[in-house]
Specification:
223 residues, alpha/beta, Rossmann fold, 6-stranded parallel sheet, 9 helices, 9 strands, transmembrane helix, hydrolase activity
C-alpha cells in the first residue's frame, strides 16, 4: 500500500492566505502605481460576493490589475524566492513543517495541493520540504510569458479533487492501492476530504469544524 499525505497550503501550512499578499508584494516591488488599482480589485471582490463573476475569473482580474496581463517567468522567479523567504519568516506553522517531516520520515509521499498559483507556490514548497506541487496553473503567450489566465481550472473544491486524481493517473497509481491522508483548514476542500482515507481538519474554519465533528474526522489546531 502506497501512502500519500496531501496538504492544502493557505491557512493550513501558512498562517494566512498568500495570494493577495503576493499580488501586493509584486506590485510594491515591481510597479507601485498598480497599488492605486486596489479599489478596483475590491470591486471585483464584491462582484464575486454577489456571484456576478466566478472565483476563477476574480483571480484573473486581480492578477491583471496588480501584475499586468503578461509577465516573463524570469522576472517572477527571483520575486517568488524573495516572497517565499518573507512568508517563512514567521508566516508558517512550525507544527505543519514538523508534520510534513514526520510524514516523509514515515515513507509517505507528500504533496502540496493548493488553489494558489504554481508560479510562486513552488518556491514555498521547496522550503516546506515538499517536492510535488499541485496548484493553479497559468496559460502562456507565444513568447512564453505567464498571462493572467488560468490554464484549465482553478485548483479549488471539485477542481482540486480532479487535479489530484489526474496526478494519481499520471503517476500510474491505482486508487485502491493508495492510502491518502488529507490536511486542510477549509470546507471548500470537502470533495478531497470525502475522497481521502484520513481526513484531518487543521485550523478548521467554523463550517469545517462543525462538519468534521459530525463526521468524526480528526481535528488538529496548529499555533
Amino acid at each position: 500500500m502506497i501512502e500519500l499525505a496531501i496538504y492544502d497550503m493557505d491557512r493550513t501550512i501558512t498562517r494566512a492566505g498568500t495570494y493577495t499578499p503576493w499580488l501586493i508584494f509584486w506590485a510594491w516591488h515591481r510597479a507601485p502605481w498598480r497599488l492605486l488599482l486596489l479599489p478596483v480589485a475590491a470591486l471585483a471582490g464584491l462582484a464575486y460576493a454577489l456571484k456576478l463573476v466566478s472565483r476563477k475569473r476574480l483571480k484573473e482580474i486581480n492578477q491583471t490589475l496588480l501584475m499586468g496581463h503578461a509577465v516573463d517567468p524570469a522576472r517572477i522567479a527571483p520575486m517568488a524566492e524573495a516572497y517565499a523567504k518573507r512568508v517563512m519568516d514567521g508566516g508558517v506553522y512550525p507544527e505543519a513543517l514538523a508534520q510534513v517531516a514526520a510524514d516523509k520520515a514515515a515513507g509517505r509521499r507528500v504533496i502540496l495541493a493548493t488553489a494558489s498559483y504554481a508560479f510562486y507556490v513552488e518556491a514555498l514548497a521547496r522550503r516546506f520540504g515538499i517536492s510535488k506541487v499541485i496548484a493553479t496553473k497559468s496559460l502562456r503567450d507565444a513568447r512564453g510569458r505567464i498571462i493572467a489566465r488560468i490554464d484549465t481550472d482553478n485548483c479549488y473544491a471539485d477542481g482540486k479533487l480532479q487535479m489530484v486524481k489526474d496526478y494519481l493517473a499520471d503517476a500510474g497509481l491505482d486508487r485502491s492501492k493508495v492510502r491518502i491522508s488529507f490536511y486542510s483548514d477549509h470546507f471548500s476542500d470537502k470533495p478531497v476530504f470525502d475522497w481521502s482515507d484520513e481526513p484531518i481538519a487543521v485550523n478548521a474554519s467554523a463550517p469545517l469544524r462543525a462538519h468534521a465533528r459530525k463526521e468524526g474526522w480528526q481535528i488538529v489546531d496548529w499555533h
